[in-house]
Amino acid sequence: TSGRAEARTLAGPPAAAELLARAAALAATLPVTPSIAFIRVGDDPASESYVRGKAKKAVELGLHSHVYALPDDTTQADLHALIGTLNADNGVHGVLLQLPLPAHLNADAALACLDPRKDVDGLHPVSAGLLWQGQPGLRPCTPAGVMALLDHYRLPVAGQHAVIVGRSALVGRPLAGLLLNADATVTVAHRATPDLGTVTRRADLLIVAAGHAHLITPDMVRPGATVIDVGINRVPTEGGKARLTGDVHPDVAGVAGALTPVPGGVGPMTVAQLMMNTVQAAQNQTAQVQATQNQTGQNQVGQP
Ligand code: ADP
């Protein structure tokens, strides 16, 4: 591949800034300030730092944000009770349950308790079903953020062969639905896929979310393909610190047409999409309140 130009770098921050500006513009049209509640259980440092980052971004955007940090010995019933309270609170438009939960808690059961209208992480079974039916709904933040990144860089999706590596409920599966809805031809590869390179080399658009550092090497990529690296792996450095690296080997830049960096690629899109989801949830809920008020004839300004 010597002499080939390096892949175009698909930097996350400008695309995230565009998405945040769209979220702020939509928020400005609403009669309420969108509000998000974060629930975090235990003291996992990564979860703590993710929630801190998301809450900070919400405040920067002018949204209301509240963090519920629950102790490690929280019971399933305690967790469901808090979710129930937030579901019933009309002042809260979005509820985000930060995963992973401590091992004694059942995340699927907790997610299923959420009011789907407040499911800003898009992980409730109703949200997943709406996505697969191609109906409007709240979409998981990382896959939707990938779509927003492709859109920002005007990369084609319709008619493209998209290959996704990874089938998690968080990334791979919902991304397959989003790409199908956007008229791509979609292949999903995973741990049990034999000869991964044969599959990935067919991709016009290769999206990797396997949680496996440098899984994708240059020989696995079709020259000129667009490669989106969703992986965030912590690898130890000689200094004893951790460095972040993706699922895609850096040498892929010599083969791909376009490539997202790690860090600074998909990462910022996830947080920006969460803000957009929160604003959209607030919009849907206020539209519903107004529809109800109009039906019952309450609070209609200018009506005798
Ligand atoms: P994430 O949350 O980033 O989606 P998960 O650990 O939940 O990551 O899921 C990893 C996904 O990647 C799984 O669907 C798994 O099958 C896939 N995967 C992991 N390792 C490989 C591999 N070596 N080849 C292909 N797919 C893999």
Outline the secondary-structure elements.
Blueprint: E1 8-9, H1 12-28, E2 35-41, H2 45-60, E3 64-70, H3 76-88, E4 94-97, H4 107-113, H5 125-132, H6 141-152, E5 161-165, H7 172-181, E6 185-189, H8 196-200, E7 205-208, E8 226-229, E9 233-236, E10 242-245, E11 258-259, H9 266-296
The structure holds adenosine-5'-diphosphate.
Task: Provide the succession of SSEs.
Answer: EHEHEHEHHHEHEHEEEEEH
CATH homologous superfamily heading of the largest domain: NAD(P)-binding Rossmann-like Domain
Oligomeric form: single chain
Count up the domains. Answer: 2
Helices, by number, come to: 9
Bound molecules: adenosine-5'-diphosphate
Strand order of the largest sheet: 1-11-8-7-5-6
Radius of gyration: 21 Å
- Helix amount, in percent? 25-40%
Distance between the termini: 76 Å
* Principal-axes shape call: globular
Parts with pLDDT < 50 across at least 5 consecutive residues: 299-304
CATH topology of the largest domain: Rossmann fold
Beta-strand residue fraction: 15-25%
